[in-house]
Structure of FAD dependent oxidoreductase:
Amino acid sequence: MTKEVIIIGNGIAGITLAVLLQRKGISFTLLHRKVEKPPFALGETLPPSAMPLLQQLKLLSVFEENAYRKTYGYHSMWGSSRVTDINFYHQNPFKNGLKINKHQTLETLRTEIKQHMISYSKGFEIIHEAHGNTVVLAKNDGIKMVQGKILVDATGRNRAVLQKLNIQSTIHDELVAVSCHIPKIKHPKLTHEVYVESFKEGWGIVSALNETENICTIYTHKGHEILSKLKEVSQWKTALAETTYLKDFLIETDNIKFKGGNANSSVANETAGSNWLALGDAAMSFDPLSSHGITNALFISAKAATTIEKKLLEADPDTFFEYDKTMQAIFQQYLQSKNELYRQETRWKDEVFWERFF
Ligand SMILES: Cc1cc2nc3c(=O)[nH]c(=O)nc-3n(C[C@H](O)[C@H](O)[C@H](O)COP(=O)(O)OP(=O)(O)OC[C@H]3O[C@@H](n4cnc5c(N)ncnc54)[C@H](O)[C@@H]3O)c2cc1C
């Protein structure tokens, strides 16, 4: 099978790129792993600033129709023990963000491109052929061979393609996240359904996932002693006893869904080469404090679609080099604002979690 583009990875970045390439009439195949674990909803929030981008990409209605709900602001306790109320009423042109249902949104978008998707269960191999083409072998019980001019890594933080190409990444911290779904309660002191609070050992966020559940995520650094207390959800209330409002959300119940993973800031040392590029979290991954991981994945996918189109039309060797330069600049800007945000919290600057930001 010969296509212009081979995309590997089935998340928001890979699917968005596929949809945009299809609209441009550029042929592609999207390779994805066959057995994916049932997704654990992270309940990602999109800020109002993401809405114009979705509108520009003609994706706003898909995201809105599949969202859990609109968000109109959030509360935070960061830098002092006062609760700040951030109200989106003053934002323009959109006065709301979205609590997205990523799984459902992706399922809807996949229906547009499913005839170009190929699954595999036993991994993939990359072979560089003569004439600048790349061949990817998708392994099931048999092998499916896909040939393309451009290879795209959209495998998120796994960076599965970059690993095979021996491209290294720079990891800037060791932030990890542990999340659980808990019964929804409405806090008597908070009006918005998103609340962020910093504390001695890290920070946490609680937000309403749907009508019956909240999601609570605690962020700290890998190896921090609080992590051993967060292994059992039943211990969370004790571990977070010194928090002001976070602890109030931790209702005990059976069968709590729980997930942990990396949430660090990292960037691929190269996000593009002569005939490949990386997208979304594979190119750069953001600290969830930024609330911009998905917005960035959408923006990069749009940038990648125009870059690929230009490369195919003009065969300009600098096109991918320019893409990489833009990606590295975005990441440096992000890193600076992220670190400034952490430095606004000075109450525990001598504590293990916080001292690294000073
Ligand atoms: C706890 C947490 C909370 C977050 N909250 C927010 C938020 O509120 N707002 C926000 O905007 N962002 C948030 N983010 C970030 C956001 O989830 C990511 O930035 C975004 O999902 C990245 O999309 P992606 O498509 O690049 O990667 P992913 O969503 O990781 O998708 C990658 C895809 O590639 C597949 N894949 C992986 N390895 C392979 C392989 N070897 N072969 C084939 N396929 C493979 C995966 O199965 C997956 O389908 C949060 C992240 C975390 C961890």
